[in-house]
Amino acid sequence: MPDMPDPTDSTTPANATYAAVPPLILASASMTRKQMLDRAGLRFAIKPADIDETDITHNMQQRGESHYSIVSMLSMKKAHHIAGQNPDALVIGSDQILVHDNRILHKSPDRESAAQKLRNLMGKTHHLISAVTVMRGDDVLWSHTESAALTMRTLDDATLESYLDRAGAGLMRSVGAYELEGHGAWLFEKVDGDFFTILGMPLLPLLGFLGTDYMATSTD
């Protein structure tokens, strides 16, 4: 079980108010996050943030920071990187980590390491923790963190190999070597948590914060 978050896992500064509706930017190269916002009907630009996630994660682990604090910081760092270059925009930063046996796992570089990761996860429950932060300039306007618990089936070698063939490059795209919205659904016995959080961003709370100002119209 990952470290538990602060009970107040959504934050909005009381003095963060702006009269005009600023442009919206997603500070991520993730196609999944782009598709989430697209399908929700948001108007936004994409400017991926270039931060050293490995270094940030390592340093925070060395200080004994919680898993929730780490993923929240990663989302904030992404937002801040782009918000500094676009001070008049609202910038969305988001990140996700996978925690298994109290360890943070990272994306697999190739099929072989993905297969080994899946073997280690089989028959067990792991957690995906996703965070999203909205910034304007240096101000953190809002942030939210959620987790989901996923229990993987135990697969025989033939079934695993079949999955690996079907998943293809998706094995390296996601931290768990699966995409639940696709062939990865076959791997699981039980899922407890929000679907969008599993995909990589707590979408519903984000939409609640943004409101309808950024909803695209049919004429956009």
Descriptive overview:
This protein is of the alpha+beta class and 220 residues long. It has one domain: Maf protein (Alpha-Beta Complex), CATH 3.90.950.10. 34% of the residues lie in helices and 24% in strands. The chain contains 8 helices and 8 strands. It has helices spanning 31-39, 53-62, 67-83, 111-121, 157-167, 170-173, 195-199, 203-210, and strands at residues 10-11, 24-26, 45-46, 90-100, 103-105, 125-136, 139-152, 188-192. Strands 1, 2, 3, 4, 5, 6, 7 and 8 form an 8-stranded mixed beta sheet that branches. A hairpin with a 2-residue loop joins strand 4 (90-100) and strand 5 (103-105). Helix 2 (53-62) crosses helix 3 (67-83). The protein is globular.
Q: Measured on Cα atoms, how large is the radius of gyration?
A: 18 Å
The percentage of residues in β strands lies in: 15-25%
How many distinct beta strands? Answer: 8
Largest sheet: 8 strands, mixed
Please name the CATH architecture.
Answer: Alpha-Beta Complex
Structural class by secondary-structure content: alpha+beta
> Could you state the order of secondary-structure elements as H and E?
EEHEHHEEHEEHHEHH
How large is the count of helical segments? 8
